[in-house]
Here is the input.
Amino acid sequence: MIPQAIFRATRNQPSFLASIVLLVAVVFIGVFGSWLAPQDPFLLNPQTVNQGSTTAHWLGTDEFGRDLLSRLLIGVQPTLLVAIGATVIAGVLGTMIGIAGAYGRPLIAFLIMRSVDIMLSFPPILLALLAVGFWESGIFSLAVVIGVLYVPHFARVAHAATLQVSRMEFMEAEHAMGASARRVVFTAILPNILSPLVVQATLTVAAAILLESGLSFLGLGIVPPEPSWGQMIGTARGYLGQNPMYVIWPSLLLALTVLAINVVGDRLRDILDPRLREE
Amino acid sequence: MNASIGALLLAARKLLTALIQLVVVATLIFSVMYIMPGDPVLLLLGADSNPSPEAIASMRSQLGLDQPVVSQYFIWLWNALHLDFGKSLTNGYPVANYVMQNLPRTLELAFAAIVIAALIGVPLGIAAALKRGSMRDTVLTSIATIGISVPVYIMGTLLVLFFSLKLGWLPASGYTDISRNILEHFRKLALPALALGFGLAASIARMTRSSMLEILGRDFVRALRAKGMSERRIIWQHVLRNAAIPIVTIIGLQLGNLMGGTVLVEAMFNWPGLSTLLVGAVSARNYPLVQGAMLAIAAAFILINLVVELLYSLLDPRIRRKRS
Amino acid sequence: MLEVRNLSIAFKTSAGLKSAVRNIDFTIRPGEILGLVGESGSGKTITSLGVMGLLPPNAVITGGEVLVDGIDILKLPPAELRKLRGGHIAMIFQDPIASLDPIFTCGDQIIEAILLHNPIGRANARRKARDLLEKVLIPDPDRAMRAYPHELSGGQCQRIMIAMAVACRPRVIIADEPTTALDVTVQKQVLDLLRELNDEVGAAILLITHDLGVIYEVADRVVVMYAGNKMEEATTADLFSAPQSDYSRALIDSMPSLGRDAERLPVIERDSSGKVRSVRPEPRPRPASSGPIPAGGDPPLLEIRDLCKSYWVKPSPLAMPVEMRAVDRVSLSIAPRTTLGLVGESGCGKSTLSRAVIRLYKPDSGQIFFKGKDIAGLSDKEMRPFRREIAMVFQNPYGSLNPRQTVAQIVEAPMLIFADGDAAGRQGRVRSLLDAVGMPAAAAQKYPHEFSGGQRQRIAIARALALNPSLVICDEAVSALDVSVQAQVLNLLKDLQAEFDLTYLFISHDLSVVEHVSDTVAVMQKGRIVEYGPAAEIFGNPMEPYTRILLDAVPTVGSLRGGKEGA
Here is the structure.
């Protein structure tokens, strides 16, 4: 019934359909970006520094004369890998911790949720800054750091959803039948907290993209010459006067991508919300 | 039980929780610094100059690093309680001076941003909720969704592009102390505060809208209509007052998050606040300064949250006067 | 005076208008109480909202008139209608606590209601509000003036709603299920209050309810609704003595009622032409495979001795926790193949007791002998074999089935947990269980949300029977169901008891239902059993005052009506 509801939503809401199309395109570019790039994204050319749009370079060039379009296309992959990797890490660990915090033994549950609260008292970007400031950064370490930072957010959602499910009578029914903890977690809790987790996952992808691009913007994320959108925006800020389009293109793409994820997340929340669906 | 005593006890309990949280956070900061790579002694003496073992040993005892970890921890905690966070490794200035100098600047930026955000976000959220499903609602919620999707540094860059480079109205970055030039101070505050404020306004608008819709759907609103109260009065006298409780909480929590959340804006506008201090200290491996700045950020966050929770229980009779 | 003429309401759907109620007609004279009765989906609530002009945005009035003292309020501009609401027409809602603004004191809300239509000044309004609170017999009116809604009980909040409703001496009062959320003794007080107040106010009262007992108790005339149509309008006495429509007759028949002993309840059926009738199904014959009926005189299957279970609750955030005895030295026993009815009001500890027996909670002290073995102190592991023997059916058929599992998976669950048989064997058992509870085999592959409340409760019963238990605990198992569905499920429980030699611990707040199903009855109040004995004795000759209060409070068809005839 949920796939049908999503299908219906794509038909009734052009913004939802457009967002899905855009995201599919972004993922496609993420996978095939290096094949799609019309020129070598790493080729330096002192003659074509900071140009606007030309026939040779459709979107212009950067401060080293490299083709902007090509760099934008291959810049998707690192961001996407970091965002998806971080979301998987945060989702798996956060869900486990959240369920344990709601369904585990009282003392353990208490300790877990207190630690989650304390971790939430630091903005993720600050902790990420600390981590990449002291350790080297790269796609893998960025994914791990950002993933770990969003574990508490996921844990909060999983915790609240598990508590809500725990109050349902079918949980009592499982216990009355003598179900094992494993069965309770996998057949009763997990399938019933999936909806908020899916929504949280889309939010986490968006947040991870913003966080990675923010770090790269500060020069602490993806290491040059490998491009990423955030890093390109950071560099382009130095050339606002000479070539304003240099900053516009990556900004537009980044904002559109995050917007599409948010639109999809909002719609999914509406579709998956049991209060709206029961009627 | 007497209601006011109950409220006092509630406040005392929240204060105690906040204190415990602060101690735990301090412990965490200390231990993270302890396990972080890099030796401050070598950094201080200059790792390239190949310092003699004697020099290293004397520096270690000077910094108290030759003591057991546990006593280092308690000395650090004790000093921190007296607002003594040690001395900067690079120039020997007390860390507390740096923190006291930069904290108010971050607070100022954060307050300015949150005021802008609340002034824009709350009315828009209310306006959207009151005409749910209308064209107005669709336009406003779309703008808000776009608003939360644009990263703060893109917003900042666009503002600079427009207001500084194109129009030349406002300076692109920097900081002027208020005692030197009040006008210049606020001119330089404007763009970073707006850059932060716009994104926050969008998220406040979204949450205001959903809080309003939640309250509008409650049974008592239908009961008020059945009493013959005018829609305007229902909104202003009952719905808004009920919705104010979650909205004020959300705004407060956002303010707390800004204590460290200003980092990107501080960096791009050269605003010398706490985050700037922290970023500089991290790249210089200036451990006492990192600890001091982190502790200040965490303490400000916890304090703001404490105030928000107290405000919350003051606004909501269901918490203020628990059923006995 | 309220006249509703030919009222029709429809819902706007993507497929056009979908009719919800059709051509509803009734008239209520001043001082009269008209009961509007029907099961869920009958359209009674949407009718009341239409009369009040408070329809949800997706509903439209497609025809008819609503005349209040001769003025058609459907034709009034919104501002004019608003002036009538609260002053001329007042409304009382189902959930009284949720119907009051949580952040204002009750006193302020009454004052506000008075000032809306009578600008008599705040001081006068305050005095009037306090008088009203005295009139609705609230204990400690001064405290109630200062209290926030969450600090009062549901019954007290409903008194406040009533105080507000009568504040401006309305001509019409619409009461939508005003006592459904309340305990039976509180329900009685609230209904009596409404009746007495109206002798003074003289409003035309429209009382909407699903409970025929409530109608019988207070209404002068009744309109019966079914599937959006008015089935019948009659005086209360006529309706119950000689119902004209088939549906009304069937509805009255299917309601278990105190003092009317019937082995089986008639159920409502619809034949292929859509005609409604009442059928009294024959008991199912005991299958030959079940063997001969065991002789009586066995030792009790379940015996509870001095069972205690406490909670520690904090009266205020920082106070020392105090002990609250939810179950206080309870002793009971149930003979095999009989039903023990456990009855009490909400919060009396009956649910805690049932969950202690099935060991969802560990009791603090006392013994629970099941087939002679004490299970009160067993560990989870030692308890396991007994979970085969004891099963439970829960109150809420919408909450007790995992929404993400198919019916087959739900019914199979206990067998899976105990690793009974192979997959094919379990599937066969699922089919026979579904058959036993009267569900089609095709149901197995569907999900719970595709079924109605009564069907879901059948699925829950099938699951409970999966391991051939000897004791089944039914915790308010029929409370969430409509009367006609309730009758079907009660019949089913009786059939299954005979067929599978079941013993029931039947928990309910509804005395009529308990009387209908029980062999022995225990009355519980504040954690203790106050009266315990054979059903006939308890209902025929109650010894304890509390039992008598409970019995008197039940609105009952056929019994003497104290309030009405006495006054």
About this structure: Chain A touches chain B at residues 15, 114, 117-118, 121-123, 125-126, 129-130, 133-135, 206, 210, 213-214, 217-218, 230, 233-234, 237, 240-241, 244, 247, 251, 254-255, 258-259, 261-263, 266 (CB under 8 Å). Residues 157 and 197 of chain A are 7 Å apart (CA to CA). DSSP finds 13 helices and no strands in chain A.
